[in-house]
């Protein structure tokens, strides 16, 4: 074995010994009979016959190019289709302009790498996505001017901002910018950011307009706001947020992302965002798929599915709250206790307090996930390093295609696991539990 092979194998062996080894699932939900409580297909658009027909119709048009262009956007890739899609996205999301990226990861890395200047400050929620962290680390802002605040704690954000304002005269004079990175809906905890309070603090402490909030709406697209425009639109904060990132790979069942910002920021990204400059543009077929999914939102075809998802969330939280004993090995996080167990919660204004992501906290997420498979349900275990040690959980993702009966069945299976424990599981189930792949969900 070469030195390279020894190093790689040693690293993998070390991760395996700590039960941190990631592996590709040999039986994804699309090829199984398991009920999907795992994917990010929140609106179940990937199975929509209406969306399928929309795409088939445009694909069957002989005048419609499907493949290529085999070039970057700045060379031969700035096609009329991509440009028109950006204009539609900007209009739909009530943004001054939009810029397409091949993924949400690319969008976050691209904008965080180049927008903050070397004398600026970066503040971020401690639980933001890995792509934000990668972009921030690659930015021109030195480590000592990159500060985290406690997750969703407005008072923590305020303390960090006050400290920066007091110590940096350039910030006080408005000569330096402060960039604040948050998500509207967090993928691990399933909780919503208190955006109005955060914006108020930022504007109050930086009255010269040098505070800039960047909101990643990856998980809220399609589920909140008019026609699924996201949490920022639901709260009517479009004009007070500097940059929004909407991705297409979750509720919209496509791939890619759009950065929504001013035309000046868009022009700057075109010149400095390396993931855009040095990547081949998405194919015509991919852009067509996004345009047809966007058409579904424009026509209001996300309204009913989104309402159903929020109603299922209320049912799931309510059922689990009643089935799980107080000192259970599986518990719901505290923020879910505020959800009122009634159907009116799903339509609360200005947006539902629920989310499609419901984490079940447990020190044994992998055995629980494997047990649920034996009962016909697919939900993913989330362990370190995806989440901090001691915060392991099973993540349940709800979809418009799920039924109340499926949600009830999942709750009963979780309660059965708690009641029986591994000692009460039969031989065949134990084999399934112990042979289960150590799956790891992405951030």
From TrEMBL:
Single Gene Ontology BP annotation: biotin biosynthetic process
Coiled coil regions in record: none
Record-annotated membrane-spanning stretches: none
Tree of life domain: Eukaryota
Every Aminotransferase class I/classII large domain range: 34-414
Gene3D superfamilies reported in the protein's UniProt record: Aspartate Aminotransferase, domain 1 (3.90.1150.10), Type I PLP-dependent aspartate aminotransferase-like (Major domain) (3.40.640.10)
GO MF term (any one): transferase activity
The keyword Transferase appears for this protein: yes
Pfam families reported for this sequence: Aminotran_1_2
Keywords of this entry: Pyridoxal phosphate, Transferase
Keyword check for Disulfide bond: no
PROSITE patterns: AA_TRANSFER_CLASS_2
Obligatory cofactor(s): pyridoxal 5'-phosphate
Family (UniProt): Belongs to the class-II pyridoxal-phosphate-dependent aminotransferase family. BioF subfamily.
Protein name (Swiss-Prot/TrEMBL): Pyridoxal phosphate-dependent transferase
Organism of this sequence: Rhodotorula diobovata
Classification of source organism: Eukaryota, Fungi, Dikarya, Basidiomycota, Pucciniomycotina
